[in-house]
Design a protein that fits this description.
The chain has 7 helices and 7 strands; from the N terminus they run βαβαβαβαββααβα. The chain is α/β, with parallel strands linked by helices. It has one domain: LmbE-like (Rossmann fold), CATH 3.40.50. α4 links the parallel β4 and β5. α3 crosses α4 and α5 runs antiparallel to α6. The radius of gyration is 16 Å and the shape is globular.
Length: 222
């Protein structure tokens, strides 16, 4: 049976928070999937910004070897409504991933809504107790937590930089430099050159009762 990982994000460039980890999982033989809940319709002044950002995301997914699926919700107007939760659940049922990664709950509204969508969809699809579930640390200031698990991405930072360069529509600041520096700052806490930080839905312990998925097992093995 093939191994799978699904990243569920609100907007196209949100994958940057976890892209180093996804690259490592791909190298380990996992099938990587991105569920992008909106088209990023409010991510810039251009009238065709949604199309621009969509093309950028396909370029990124081609670069890292991921399969991309959009769910056609409106940027800035996300809620964890019944239909979108069911739609994401159906997609998860098709893949039956070993790992699901999404936003931390206490972030800006669209990200928090996607956390709710992912949580409900995992329960609806029946994979909540059999798939490892992680929340990634945002690359923006003000929404971060102290990670309980770190993934050392030092060896793939060149690949991460190439991904950053794909987001030309978002280069309003020293975008790539900021993001790479943020990952290096996280790395200091993990005693490595660069890292990405995660929280889990259950405590990290040596044995988790009768739970089939030992959360932490897959990412700690990277």
């Amino acid at each position: 049976m093939s191994k799978g990982v699904v990243y569920i994000g609100a907007h196209q460039d949100d994958i940057l928070s976890v892209v180093g980890t996804l690259i490592l999982l791909k190298k380990k033989g996992y099938n990587v999937h991105e569920f992008c809940i909106t088209r990023g319709q409010k991510g810039g002044p251009e009238p065709d910004i949604a199309q621009i950002r969509t093309e950028e995301e396909y370029e990124v997914c081609k670069l890292i070897g991921a399969e991309l699926r959009f769910f056609e919700q409106m940027d800035g107007e996300l809620f964890a409504g019944e239909q979108i939760c069911k739609d994401v659940a159906m997609a998860l049922e098709e893949i039956k991933p070993d790992v699901v990664i999404t936003h931390w709950a206490l972030e800006k509204p669209d990200h928090s809504a996607v956390f709710g969508i992912a949580l409900k969809a995992m329960h609806l699809s029946g994979i909540y107790w059999t798939s490892e579930f992680y929340f990634c640390q945002s690359d923006s200031h003000g929404y971060n937590f102290r990670p309980e698990l770190y993934v050392n991405i030092s060896d793939v930072m060149d690949d991460v930089a190439k991904v950053c360069a794909c987001y030309k529509s978002q280069q309003v600041q020293p975008f790539t430099k900021h993001l790479l520096n943020h990952k290096r700052e996280i790395g200091k806490n993990a005693w490595c050159d660069a890292a990405e930080g995660f929280m889990t839905n259950v405590p990290l312990i040596n044995k988790r009762w009768d739970r089939k998925a030992e959360v932490g097992r897959i990412l700690l093995d990277l």
